[in-house]
UniProtKB/TrEMBL annotation:
InterPro entries in the cross-refs: IMPase, Inositol_monoP_metal-BS, Inositol_monophosphatase-like
Enzyme class: hydrolase
Keyword Magnesium set for record: yes
Name by which UniProt lists this protein: Inositol-1-monophosphatase
Entry superkingdom: Bacteria
Cofactor(s) the protein needs: Mg(2+)
Organism of provenance: Pendulispora brunnea
EC number in record: 3.1.3.25
The keyword Metal-binding belongs to this UniProt entry's keyword annotation: yes
Length: 277
């Protein structure tokens, strides 16, 4: 029988974060053992890949979190466990965020574990083994990179901002594919990066490399851990419309706070042009 946790108590939050980091490290070691090696790759969609390492990583994470905590685990590959004890506190797990990168030998991939409590991101642990980065954070309290405190950037000018974004799996057939926003915003900021892992994009906002990030059609396992880390580093989260962040909505804007409103205005302008065509 696992111990109980009060997710509002800081000592228990830190204990849960330590568990999440332990588990993410173990899963990341497993994933790294297959990087640039031979493995099985299947298609979940035209451009959506899954490997036997995704499945093995998720199985490991589920097993370890079930053994040490009482909370539901929801993962990208196997969904949730409806029979678990808590429906208000859930782990959201991406066993390999950046699977396409992993398949092609690109180092920008990670294991992401986040705890969503009563609809809000509470804490996250993200391990990117090929990059040798570990990120942790508790929303509103702290964030770390490789054990050292990290904070969002101090950038205030949108024209000087380095941003990140991503594109949905249905980009070949959907008009809402972010291409128009990418082009429009790239013309007005310093640069936009697209590296293929929402979890790591959020971590790079948290530690100040990126000044902001936006993306649509995301799942809760993509963003729960990274969102908690951004909030721990002093950043700001919202929907595209500026409403409070909701992990189930799928649209996310994350910034250092100082350029947030400017990024929202640019996204609104793109949306306005799309609807008036």
């Amino acid at each position: 029988m696992t111990r109980s946790f009060d997710v509002h108590a800081e000592n228990d939050q830190r204990a849960l974060l330590a568990i999440a980091l332990d588990v993410a490290r173990e899963a990341a070691e497993l994933v790294l053992s297959g990087w640039r090696k031979k493995f099985t790759v299947d298609l979940k969609g035209p451009v959506d890949l899954v490997t036997d390492f995704d499945r093995a990583s998720e199985a490991l994470v589920r097993d370890r979190l079930h053994a040490r905590t009482p909370f539901t685990v929801v993962g990208e590959e196997a969904g949730g466990d409806a029979n678990r004890l808590s429906d208000e506190v859930r782990w959201y797990v991406d066993p390999i965020d950046g699977t396409t990168n992993f398949v092609h030998g690109h180092p920008f991939f990670c294991v992401s574990i986040g705890l969503l409590a009563h609809g809000q991101p509470l804490l996250g642990a993200i391990v990117a083994p090929a990059l040798r980065y570990e990120f942790t954070g508790i929303a509103g309290k702290f964030a770390t990179r490789n054990g050292e405190p990290c904070h969002v950037s101090a950038a205030t000018e949108f024209s000087e901002a380095l941003l990140a974004t991503g594109f949905p799996y249905d980009r070949r057939v959907s008009e809402d594919n972010n291409f128009d926003a990418f082009v429009a915003i790239k013309k007005k900021c310093q640069a936009v990066r697209r590296c293929g892992s929402a979890a790591l994009d959020l971590c790079f906002v948290a530690e100040g490399t990126y000044d902001g990030y936006w993306e649509k059609k995301l799942n809760a396992w993509d963003i729960t851990g990274g969102s908690a880390i951004v909030l721990g580093a002093g950043g700001r989260l919202s929907t595209y419309g500026g409403e409070p962040f909701n992990a189930m909505r799928g649209d996310l804007v994350a910034t250092n706070g100082k350029i947030h409103d400017a990024l929202l205005r640019e996204l609104a302008e793109v949306q306005s042009k799309r609807t008036t065509k």
